[in-house]
Amino acid sequence: MKLALGCDHGGLELKEKIKAHLEKRGFEILDCGTYTTDSCDYPDFGAAAARAVANGDCDRGIVICTTGIGISIAANKVKGIRCALLSDLMSARMTRQHNDTNMMALGAAVVGPMLALQIVDTWLDTEFEGGRHQRRVDKLSALEN
User: In the chain, how many domains are there?
Assistant: First the structure.
């Protein structure tokens, strides 16, 4: 599975920890930036990761900023993206099972690195249940048109 990662300066340290963890797990990573702690704009990097998922270059994506709010909004502006801002394991599991999210966002100032890695693993290892949930996901997709 190929994953797109994106962050602003506030999420850089956590992105690098997640990237190293995912590479150890054998995932292929497309790092959409940022690469320094210089102040930058989260929409640029959230959108870049989201476009990589939406166009099929990556299977899923993870984006990070200080709170996760702005970068998740940016990702969700890209057609075909269902990005959930996550801060707990139950939401990580449920958003995959019921919403078939293809992106997740984290707030680097909200969750610590240990919890963040657990959230990432839960989200990646949980499958979409389909069934009645597919109808709802289809309705979400129809809202984009």
Answer: 1
The catalytically annotated residue of 32, 58, 65, 83 is 65
Show the domain range for 131: 2-142
Token output for 59: 């299977």
What are 107-134's pLDDT values in tens digits? 999 999 999 999 999 999 999 999 999 9
Spatial neighbors of 10 by CB under 8 A, at least 6 apart, are 42, 64, 65, 66, 108, 109
What confidence tens digit (pLDDT) does each residue in 11-35 have?
999 999 999 999 999 999 999 999 9
In the beta sheet, which residues pair with residue 65? Answer: 107
CA-to-CA distance for 23 and 19, rounded, in angstroms?
A: 6
133 catalytically annotated: no
Is the whole-model pTM more than 0.90? Answer: yes
Active site residue 21: no
Supply the CATH number for residue 137's domain. Answer: 3.40.1400.10
SS3 50: helix
